[in-house]
Amino acid sequence: MTELIQEIYPETMQDFIEQFATEKQCRDYLAKIRWSSGFACPHCKGVDAWIKKNGVRMCKKCRKDISVTAGTHFAYSKIPLNIWFQAIWFVVIQKQGVSALGLGRALGIKRQKTGWFLLKRIREAMIKTSPDLLSGIVEVDEVFLGGVKTGKRGRGAEGKTLILVAVEDKGKKGIGRIRISTIPNASENTLLETIQKLVEPCSTIRTDQHRSYPIITKHNFYHKPIAKVSYELGEDNTPLVHRVASLLKRWLLGTHQGGVQQENISSYLDEYVFRFNRRTSKSRGKLFYRLIQNMLKK
Length: 298
What we know:
- There is one protein chain.
- By secondary structure, the chain is of the alpha/beta class.
- It has a domain at 137-260: Ribonuclease H-like superfamily/Ribonuclease H (Nucleotidyltransferase, domain 5), CATH 3.30.420.10.
- It has helices spanning 2-8, 13-19, 23-34, 81-93, 100-107, 112-126, 188-198, 239-256, 265-277, 284-295, and strands at 49-51, 57-59, 65-66, 137-145, 161-169, 175-182, 204-207, 222-225.
């Protein structure tokens, strides 16, 4: 697999232009990735097919036509594949992200809805590149997007979204990977279910002393609560989480000018996690390849 990756992802903008100048080049690229181990019919599992002039495969066993984009994030889209590829490339080369308006301008797309549609599909694929659960020592805490909430903890507030942030503590190496999820409240069941989706069993979960966290010890997690400290002295019992949350809020304000609708916040969080976990990556081309891989999944 490593050899295949080295052969097919673009390293530079010039590589990208040469490799994906036409619809056929883009379609062939998708086929090479989707059927890297050989063609497999989604209907009858047949392994042989004829290739028509438009690139559609006809299964020799069941005689059904299979498009390379069928059942993927590209399906049912009238947007040309070369525009899709340009959008994905533009997104991965922008280290701080891009807004729908900015993407539309870069690609010459007049309708902002088209730019948003492209970004939404790309962001959906982003989280699929980070399926591995966090492990080791993981710091966890809830954070409100939209300002610090006053009043009873765990309740929502107008215009604010409650999220759970999980951060791997790598000691002297600093922050490892992160995962973020929106949550409806900070109840025991909600926090437990969310932690189970983000963190490997038997990991050590470091939290504040909120009463909803101890339940995790009954479900194959070690719990390390940190005693309440004086915030007046500038101390913090979950500093890694709040550092990540601070960078997240700055990113939302900088790249998206804070214009994030609550119903779309999960999409933005997926993009932020994708970018943060690959902040040291030197190969934009490999990120492009990974996104294309996951765009082919549904």
